[in-house]
Amino acid sequence: MPSTACGREMVFALLSKAGYDLSRVVEQEEKTAFKVSIFWDKKAEAVRFLQQIKKWRLKKARACFIKHCRTDWSSRWKKDWKPFSLTPKLFVVPLWLKDRKIPRWKEPLYLDTTNAFGTGLHETTQLTAQFIESLSGTFKTFLDVGTGSGILVVVAKKSGAGYCAAFDIDPGAVKVALKNLKANKMFCDMLKASDIKKFFPGRKFDFVAANLVTRDLTAFRKKIISFVAPGGFLAISGISLRNMRVIKKEFFGPPLQLLKVVKGREWAGYLFRREPQ
Ligand SMILES: C[S@@+](CC[C@H](N)C(=O)[O-])C[C@H]1O[C@@H](n2cnc3c(N)ncnc32)[C@H](O)[C@@H]1O
User: Which DSSP state fits 243?
Assistant: First the structure.
């Protein structure tokens, strides 16, 4: 697959246009390129999709079909994984590597399964996790919009949050989040499979995290902001560097006050504070 941020964005846009559920795409960075793996239960569907990808004739991209049985897939990923630093305080440790040594000054964040977005390897997860940790002890309630693996809820709890709520459009992700919370001996007060369109939490939160694609961030801007309590914090990510101008246009200004922008290698994250009323 192409090595540029632009190439990656293009592949994701095409996959999305072709109707593929992006939450099931697994990305791997390699030295000069990146690889996306897409999984199907039915071979016929995988073959059909491969033909479609080939029709796009993407420059510098290769696509191939590999048959895996379910056990191959889970053990293959387990083999490739190593504990790594997510934030200044937290180290992600897959549960099956629980006995591995981590730096003395770090705290482990266990992941039981990596079968949802939010392994902690993606820059957007890292940016959002760092925003949450940077405000440790300053918020009591937390909402994770599009929770994926639930990793951000674990970060929020470790940063002092009490009441936590999270939801994801993908019921599979919600099951994964539940397992990951359990692996950290935590629970989420409200954890639901729901589309943001249909999510009404009935309360506001001191900290809201939304790591979504730019299109969804802008489409649901009003709703996302409505989840934030006056004086509360909003962290957004999932924004490729070339979409930063869209975020500026849509999110800058009242009722939000910009606290921080972080530009990563390919993605950006923003931290806002909602004006106190
Ligand atoms: C980029 S992942 C973020 C996962 C995790 N919060 C993290 O930061 O690593 C976005 C998540 O949002 C979910 N999502 C996408 N559209 C959604 C929608 N309309 N309503 C709720 N969740 C959505 C996806 O299923 C996916 O798990």
Answer: G
